[in-house]
Amino acid sequence: MFADTVWMKNGDRLSGKIKVFDGGKLLLETPYGGSIALDWKQVQTLESDQEMLVKQDAYSGEKAKSLKAAEPGKVTLANGEAPKTVELASIEQIMKPKPLVEDFVWKGNVDVALDYKRAENDTDDYDVGFKTTARHGRWRHNAEGEYNRETKDDVTTTDNWSAEYALDRFITEKWFWQGRAEYKRDRIEDLARQRTVGTGPGYQFWDDELGAFSLGSLINRTDFEYQDGGKDNFYSAAVKWDYTRYLIGKNVQLFTNGEFAKPLGGVADYSLDAEVGLRYKVTEWASLNLKAEKDIITGTRESDLDKTRYTAGFGVTW
């Protein structure tokens, strides 16, 4: 249902559904042109029957039951008995407020990067990764995995895959407790297998229309298996992060996630598994992506790991 209206300074009147305002762009979903990013400086006023969270600074916001059109350059926040009219120029963000407990929310993405080259040196490079979360009430399921393979002149130089599952239980609106299990397999490096289970508290700083940010602290039990048959196991303290942020009217997404771990014994000095990248939305579901990945393990018995990968590809987001 499209019940919102935006009046532009040039006299145009646009109908649709307001999705979000951020970074100087108002995203309006229309039945005739899909999602349209409008320059906020060209908006005269607007109205919406939706409940909205209106932020006039980076730290606090005001919930409005609806938005009512006002004189040029202003909008009225309807809150029942005390409507409030504010300058459009004073507004930094507009978005739908996120309820504390939602019935079911599922989101995720799949990214694919391929490099198939036939020249003096033949190269085949495949990188596939996925990440998904499903939240039901106070429970949140997280799953992710990736597969990387590279060959040069019929010689395999990279061949590895990994998978992880984590279950979060929200204790309050922000605090949660996580349990996780992860498995990594590498057929090329000396460190052939890594198994990790862990648990610990986490904090969700925000999770809204524009992105999410969470930090977690874990105590892990990790098992290493080497190509020569050797084995190590140890406990570690770790910090995990997961950050996403939409920019430029939700056309570009900045993301980074990873884990830094410090073994409690002498098996290794530290480990880092992280990625950072950008996604550019081509359609509502398709995107182009650029990504950098770093995987480090130092201080092991002759099996240190230090890998960096840069990929460009396409993906699907939902």
Polypeptide structure, described:
The protein has 318 residues and is mainly β. It contains no helices and 23 strands. A 12-stranded antiparallel beta barrel has the order 12-13-14-15-16-17-18-19-20-21-22-23. Strands 1, 2, 3, 4, 5, 6, 7 and 11 form an 8-stranded antiparallel sheet that branches. It has a 3-stranded antiparallel sheet with strand order 8-9-10, with no helix packed on it. The radius of gyration is 24 Å and the shape is elongated. The mean pLDDT is 89.
Please give a handful of descriptors for the protein shown.
mainly beta; elongated; twelve-stranded antiparallel beta barrel; 23 strands; Porin; 2 domains; eight-stranded antiparallel beta sheet; 318 residues
Quick synopsis:
With 318 residues, the chain is mainly β. The chain has strands spanning 4-8, 13-22, 25-30, 34-39, 43-47, 52-55, 61-64, 66-69, 74-78, 84-87, 93-95, 105-117, 123-136, 139-152, 155-170, 175-186, 191-208, 211-226, 231-247, 252-263, 270-281, 286-298, 305-317. The chain has a twelve-stranded antiparallel β-barrel with strand order 12-13-14-15-16-17-18-19-20-21-22-23. Strands 1, 2, 3, 4, 5, 6, 7 and 11 form an eight-stranded antiparallel β-sheet that branches. The chain has a three-stranded antiparallel β-sheet with strand order 8-9-10, with no helix packed on it.
Question: What is the secondary structure topology, with strand pairs?
Answer:
Layout (H helix, E strand, L loop, with lengths): L3 E5 L4 E10 L2 E6 L3 E6 L3 E5 L4 E4 L5 E4 L1 E4 L4 E5 L5 E4 L5 E3 L9 E13 L5 E14 L2 E14 L2 E16 L4 E12 L4 E18 L2 E16 L4 E17 L4 E12 L6 E12 L4 E13 L6 E13 L1
Antiparallel strand pairs: 1-2, 1-5, 2-3, 2-11, 3-4, 6-7, 6-11, 8-9, 9-10, 12-13, 12-23, 13-14, 14-15, 15-16, 16-17, 17-18, 18-19, 19-20, 20-21, 21-22, 22-23
